[in-house]
Amino acid sequence: MENQPKLSSSKEVIAYLSQQFPSCFIAEGEAKPLKIGIFQDLVERIPAEMSLSKTQLRSALRVYTSSWRYLYGIKAGATRVDLDGNACGTLEEQHVEHARQQLEEAKARVAAHRAKQRSEAKTDEAGKAERRPRKPTARKPAAQNASATENKPRKPKNDSRQSSSAEGKAVTDTSVLKVGQPIRVKAGLSAVEATVLEISKEGVRVQLASGLAMIVRPEHLQF
Questions:
Q1: Which strand (E) or helix (H) includes residue 108?
Q2: Is residue 110 within 8 Å of residue 85, measured between CB atoms?
Q3: By three-state DSSP, how is residue 182 classified?
Q4: Which of 68, 115, 142, 145 has the lowest tally of Cβ within 10 angstroms?
């Protein structure tokens, strides 16, 4: 039997589970609530040649079930599913409430991080304005002829002040990051808000406010 490629990150594990058990794990969109005890089911169903450790599997499940799109799916009346998509009972109220609290806390962290960034940007801009040198005002000769002054063409003013978009602090060391931390992802000339899901050698796995998850290299991240 040919050797299967080794899965080295939670993203790869989740992608594999979505392909292997498409009726249970959803790659995109609102995820379905998982059966309680599904970890053991996975241990028994995943082929041994995948060389997938229990630690890797637990880490991937933790990332999957803490994502915003999964928490959105934990709602009253929703049904848990097993690996084959079969219904395994409705959600209990305490589980729905716990998911709601997790989602609210995650949103609050993102909002607080945005407010901090705006405050730091205003402070930084004010400091730049104070440090900006002012051009000395030239005095006109007292005997200057008024009519000559009126006829002299005026040079357009060169406004040296330029508006600058507030940029966050670039991430240079991924060791300072932690799971659940709000972060910004640079996209062209702008940056979008996201939350850290996982830190691995391939990069930093983040989830955007839209629910989209992706791996981003450190140089594209900002505090």
A1: helix 93-131
A2: no
A3: strand
A4: 142
221 contacts: CB under 8 Å, gap ≥ 6: 170, 171, 183, 184, 185, 186, 204, 206
84/23 Cα distance (integer angstroms): 6
Contacts of residue 7, Cβ cutoff 8 Å, sequence gap at least 6: 13, 16, 50, 52, 56
Domains of the chain, CATH where assigned: 10-100 (1.10.1710.10)
Q: Give 59-98 pLDDT, tens digit per residue.
A: 999 999 999 999 999 999 899 999 999 999 889 999 999 9
Cβ burial 143-174 (10 Å sphere, 16+ → b, else e) = eeeeeeeeeeeeeeeeeeeeeeeeebeebeeb
Confirm if 10 and 55 have CB atoms less than 8 A apart: no
Closest of 189, 205, 206, 219 to residue 113, by C-alpha: 206
Radius of gyration of the chain (CA): 27
pTM summary value: 0.49
Residues belonging to the chain: 223
